[in-house]
Amino acid sequence: MLHISAAAVDDLMTWPELVDALDSAFRNGMIQPVRHHHPVERPEGSPSMLLLMPAWSDFHKLEHQSQGYMGVKIVTVSPDNGLIDKPAVMGVYLLLDGITGEPKALIDGQSLTRWRTAAASALAARYLAREDASRLVIMGAGAVSSNLVRAHSSVRPITDIALCVRNPKRAEATLKELRDEGYNAYIAEDHIAAIQQADIVAAGTLATEPLIHGKHLRPGTHVDLVGAFTPDMRESDDEAVLRSRVFVDTKDGALKEGGDITQPLRDGIIKPDHVLGDLFDLARGTVKGRVSDQDITLFKSVGAAMEDLAAGIMVYEKSLKQQG
């Protein structure tokens, strides 16, 4: 069994390849049960969340069954980790042979998650963001933020990147990293003005109150919501959802877990059919994403196990080729 470290994941992945791999996975299909999530309460501090995310190849659609895999990601999300300078998300991915169940690889879950999360956003932007989108606003500067910059820049001609953060000092490392890679990134002094001028607004936070308000979105904006993965969390307000053509990564997940969708559904602000489709629909062309350059589009993801499986297969097979 291969052990694939975070550094190896970073070395093996490329954004164009991964976005294409996810596109193929959603277009051709994989099997994924609804993920298991269990809150872990403690006497002090915020509760952690334990997530189990299994998926496997759809063997009925494979030309050769030997091409199939199974896999499961075990993840913890601990919101208080930032207080001790540790990532909020921890995890590992176990990739298995699809026929025998033999373990094939144990892959660093944090790095795999960062890559596939941002790649799913880039895949959505490929269908939903204007082709000339150049101004990107990122809400937050956590572990996923820099990858959101890289991923969106791989599918759209991004030339201007504003980071909207509560604590600029904590964003200095992310800012330096992006600038060293050649990105025109800076800290936005006025968050509202940055959003008003954005072509794409992406948020990957643990917010429980809206950061993105519909009244500030100009026509043509694409909103990418990556954080707020429970019903009690959200990054956008009701008006942002109402004004947008709304898509999700998977309906089974986002309509049950993502507060940006579940809260306006619960309150009767929107009906289920306000969510026009998911990545399956976009990849297969069964629903039109962006209809005009004036559309405001919104993509909400909560994470899908098949994204991890597609990314894990890609890393494993590239690692085998690299070894020989």
TrEMBL record:
GO cellular component terms, semicolon-separated: cytoplasm
Transport listed as a keyword: no
Domain of life: Bacteria
Protein EC: 4.3.1.12
Keywords attached to this entry: Lyase
GO biological process assignments: carboxylic acid metabolic process
Keyword field contains Lyase: yes
InterPro entries: NAD(P)-bd_dom_sf, ODC_Mu_crystall, ODC_N
Single annotated GO MF: oxidoreductase activity
Recorded family membership: Belongs to the ornithine cyclodeaminase/mu-crystallin family.
UniProt xrefs under PANTHER family: KETIMINE REDUCTASE MU-CRYSTALLIN
Name recorded for this polypeptide: Ornithine cyclodeaminase
Source organism: Pseudochrobactrum saccharolyticum
